[in-house]
Amino acid sequence: xxxxxxxxxxxxxxxxxxxxxxxxxxxxxxxxxxxxxxxxxxxxxxxxxxxxxxxxxxxxxxxxxxxxxxxxxxxxxxxxxxxxxxxxxxxxxxxxxxxxxxxxxxxxxxxxxxxxxxxxxxxxxxxxxxxxxxxxxxxxxxxxxxxxxxxxxxxxxxxxxxxxxxxxxxxxxxxxxxxxxxxxxxxxxxxxxxxxxxxxxxxxxxxxxxxxxxxxxxxxxxxxxxxxxxxxxxxxxxxxxxxxxxxxxxxxxxxxxxxxxxxxxxxxxxxxxxxxxxxxxxxxxxxxxxxxxxxxxxxxxxxxxxxxxxxxxxxxxxxxxxxxxxxxxxxxxxxxxxxxxxxxxxxxxxxxxxxxxxxxxxxxxxxxxxxxxxxxxxxxxxxxxxxxxxxxxxxxxxxxxxxxxxxxxxxxxxxxxxxxxxxxxxxxxxxxxxxxxxxxxxxxxxxxxxxxxxxxxxxxxxxxxxxxxxxxxxxxxxxxxxxxxxxxxxxxxxxxxxxxxxxxxxxxx
Length: 509
Known about the structure:
By secondary structure, the protein is an alpha/beta fold. A seven-stranded mixed sheet has the order 21-20-19-22-18-17-23, with helices on both faces. Helix 8 (173-178) links the parallel strand 9 and strand 10.
């Protein structure tokens, strides 16, 4: 992997100029001025929200079911947008207004067939300007943000690395992230999410990764694609643009491992154990000879001659680490480099985040896992919480799981029944889906839970949830908050009183 990076200079202001935009975007037309007069004008950053436009920006007005970004073109131009994409039909309808903005602000307008696809084509053209950048893609039903952070941490030990910030992994988020690539970067790690069919193929076409990893095939978005097999087919598209020099990484224990590995070009590496209850292949081919679980404080991983302390708890995070380690091992990173990278990773906000709240009078431990939820991640969270040793009681606060489509009814019932068998002392169900699931739980299961003194609460509002939790919780209790992002279960934390702080990072030592 070369130290020198070709492509736009790190200090260059212009990411793409007008001539390059016309080359990149199929069917684009520069309006109101000849190319000879504007060929070297361009943009220095990109925005899809007019409120984020600053001088020199490319503004891409997106068209959705509820909003049309074309309404904000004048606002973007006045804010300093140097380049704006406009769909051709809107360009014809608003030609006089656009021409006036060009004369007033000097904004270059490009008429395109479809603003989103034009944005993606421009981003793909830009990414291609960096042929020596090692591009790594990550997708999967869950864990992709965590694996992306792990890989970025490892690769940054050796050289400057660019990645998606936050969760910018969508049809618009990935292009925005790609425009952060600069000549100084040696590595780029980008996650790819999906909300519709064929989206992963589009995103892979933008990045063209040479290394790509799939974390797992679960039930996230099953309501959109219909089945786990369809999800697997979609996630597999991260390998769609592979050539003979590319390598993909597939979890060995996944039900669809064989399907994912069946690609026309490139190489597939299986990582982890073929047994679902093991993270590491027992034969030691991965270089990992031993793991030790420290509960809320994470894991020790014995890799080659190094003890790596992973501060992320939960068996699923151990699996994530094994995947990241497999990519880094293949890329030639030393055990010391992998150790330095993985040990720098801490919990991401809302993803198995361990908090202490309540102050000295009623200290509580909270597992804050409310960034997202689907049947697989709900099962993982319940298994993790149930396996922990605590000085107090186990309290489960479960919010509805959204976007499950036809499987939602059964998935929520299954989650509630699993919670009843988890050994918890109390179960707080929040959201219509969870309440309806409780009504469908068989009478025998409810009676058996009641015989174990399991308390079940069905609060209608966050305020009631807070009141009921405050009345129930005692010193030393462990609380799991798990639900979809839209449920925003973290809203209950301030209602429980006291400040919150992270568990010390060296708690495993």
